[in-house]
Amino acid sequence: MSGLASRFFASALIYAVLGMTLGLVMGMTEDHSQMPTHAHILVVGWVSFALFGFFYHLFPAAAKSRLAAAHFWLAEASLLVMLAGLVQIFMGRTEAGQPFAAAGSTGLLASMILFAIVAWPSVRRA
Q1: 105: phi > 0 → left, psi -120 to 50 → alpha, else beta; which?
Q2: What's the rounded Cα separation, in Å, for the pair 43 and 22?
Q3: Could you tell me the pTM of the whole model?
Q4: What distance, in Å, lies between the first and last C-alpha atoms of the chain?
Q5: What CA–CA distance (Å, rounded) separates 99 from 1?
Q6: Burial (0-12, 13-18, 19+ Cβ within 10 Å), 66
Q7: DSSP labels for 5-69?
Q8: How do the domains of the chain map onto residue ranges?
Q9: Most exposed among 31, 72, 82, 110, judged by the fewest C-beta atoms under 10 Å?
Q10: How far is the C-alpha of 86 from the C-alpha of 94, rounded, in Å?
Q11: Separation CA 82–CA 39 (nearest Å)
């Protein structure tokens, strides 16, 4: 695995460790207020990024486009922004967190649209 596929998968592994660590901390402290943040780290960060990595590994030609690179950077930045917002929201600072969560969520939607644009031709040919 190399290039974009490797970057997505490496990010996925980092998010898996972060999400599981947050889950462990929540269990140890019996404070589950960050459960939605934990879920987003694991589902978007670990699962989605791993799937993106596997797709780009299976279809390396798709990974070479500028849109694919934009997909990676937009997804990465958007997830981090959204997570920063979610942490704030579930710490009780809703007004501070909502703009970040909204911007990050919008960016993640845009990155998924980019992925669909990049992936569709490869999937149709397969």
Answers
A1: alpha
A2: 13
A3: 0.93
A4: 20
A5: 36
A6: exposed
A7: HHHHHHHHHHHHHHHHHHHHHHHHHT--TTHHHHHHIIIIIIIIHHHHHHHHHH-HHHHTSHHHH
A8: 3-125
A9: 31
A10: 9
A11: 12
pLDDT in tens, 7-54: 999 999 999 999 999 999 999 999 999 999 999 999 999 999 999 999
Side chain identity at residue 86, one-letter code:
L
| pLDDT score of 124 | 84
7/12 Cα distance (integer angstroms): 9
Show the tokens assigned to 114: 């980019």
Task: Name the token pair of 125.
Answer: 């040919």
d(CA 76, CA 86): 15
